[in-house]
Amino acid sequence: ISDINKRLGITAIIITHQMSVIEEICSRVAILDAGVVVEEGSVKDIFANPQTAAAKRLVFPNSDTYAEHLKTNRVIRVVFNGGTSYEPLIASLAIDCGIKANILGAETKNVNGQAFGYMLLGLPENDAEANKALAYIRSREGVSAEEVPDYHA
Predict the structure, then answer these.
(1) Which of these, 16, 46, 62, 148, is most buried using a 10 Å CB contact count?
(2) Are 53 and 31 in contact (CB under 8 A)?
(3) How far is Cα 21 from Cα 111, in angstroms, rounded to an integer?
(4) Pairing of strands 143-147, 75-80
(5) How far is residue 94's CA from residue 68's CA, in Å, rounded to a whole number?
(6) Packing angle of the helix pair 89-97, 127-139 (nearest 10 deg)
(7) How many other CB atoms are found less than 10 A from the CB of residue 100?
(8) What is the pLDDT of residue 64?
(9) Better pLDDT: 24 or 151
(10) How far is the CA of 74 from the CAs of 1, 3, 21, 61, in angstroms?
């Protein structure tokens, strides 16, 4: 399908729940929830920063499974764009701030030739340290972070 698109300039519409298909052959994606388009954009943008709950469920299908095992810490989801997924973020956090974070789960994938990834991190129980860690992570270029509120203690 991708080859036909490139050679002949024909647009193909694919309807699937398999995000791996979207990752491999699509340049744009629309996310539907209960038959309504809730988010649309380039595959790169949606995978780097999904905005809706429906998009997050599709892009991060295992994040709830990872997070449910740690209910005592604040849990955050850190998303890396295509240029930063191989940066040593956790090591930098420990060295620069003296803060340790627990990696609960992580995944990287190739989307249109770029590496994207996400991690679920358990932050320290101390609010000051957790807030400092979150601010540090959010200050990094090409990285976004959001709390996963359902997993607070």
Answers:
(1) 46
(2) no
(3) 10
(4) antiparallel
(5) 24
(6) 130
(7) 13
(8) 56
(9) 24
(10) 43, 45, 33, 20
Q: Which domains are delineated in the chain?
A: 2-49 (no CATH), 63-151 (3.30.70.260)
Single-letter amino acid code for the residue at 113? G
**101 — phi, psi (to 5°)?**
-125, 145
For residue 25, pLDDT over 60 is answered with: yes
Q: Look at the alpha carbons of 55, 58, 62, 65 in this order and tell me if their dihedral is positive or negative.
A: positive
pLDDT digits (tens, 9 = 90+) for 53-101: 888 888 777 655 544 444 446 899 998 876 665 678 888 999 999 998 9
Q: Give the contacts of 61 (CB within 8 A, at least 6 positions apart).
A: 19
R_g of the chain, CA atoms, integer Å? 17
Mean pLDDT, the chain, rounded, equals: 81
3-state secondary structure of 138: helix
- Return the residue matching tokens 């996963």: 148
The answer to whether the CB of 81 falls within 8 A of the CB of 116 is yes
How far apart are alpha carbons 52 and 33 in whole angstroms?
Answer: 10
DSSP for residue 118? E
Q: How much of the chain is in helix, strand and coil states, percent to nearest 5?
A: 35, 30, 35
Predicted TM-score (pTM) of this structure? 0.58
